[in-house]
Specification:
Arc Repressor Mutant, subunit A; single chain; Tetracycline Repressor, domain 2; disordered C terminus; mainly alpha
Amino acid sequence: MTTSRSTYHHGELRQAVLAAALDVIATDGPGALSLRDLARRAGVSHAAPAHHFKDRTGLLTAIAAEGYELLAEALAGTAGLRERGVRYVRFATEHPAHFQVMFQPELLRADDPDLLAAKERASAELRTGVADLGAVPDARTAGIAAWSLAHGFATLLLTHNVRDAVGDRDPEEYFRSLTGLLSGGGAPQLPTGERE
């Protein structure tokens, strides 16, 4: 059944455009987005997406805000910094289009209230993970170090730069091994085929 423009309710059209945009980003990157193309995909007039998002920057900002909200939800209630890192990697693999957009500030309206609120919520969840460490000499630097490890691994994973290293292993388990290595827990355990 094809959805026509007359059957969309206000929120449904917004979600349809967001979903279509996420599909485009996942396959072709954010540079391929066009409001006119998204309107065609959603079966609505070319002006309809602009009604919700104003322009391409507004659409990308909405995607980033949604991504930060999803990230905050993914991190909430997770005990321990390592497991928050695992959840971060899981978020990136489950929401790669959001992940691509969230960390490209040049594509976004930096002063958007929804984006700022969502970023703060996600940041608060990340800070809670650092607080779980107890007293650390420089909590901000510890937080950046932890974020760098999780974000770097997630980025390398999504861009297929660690495909050979991860192999058939679960990326989340591999990430746990990496954090164990850096915290003095020994070298990551390699699958049998990778051991020398």
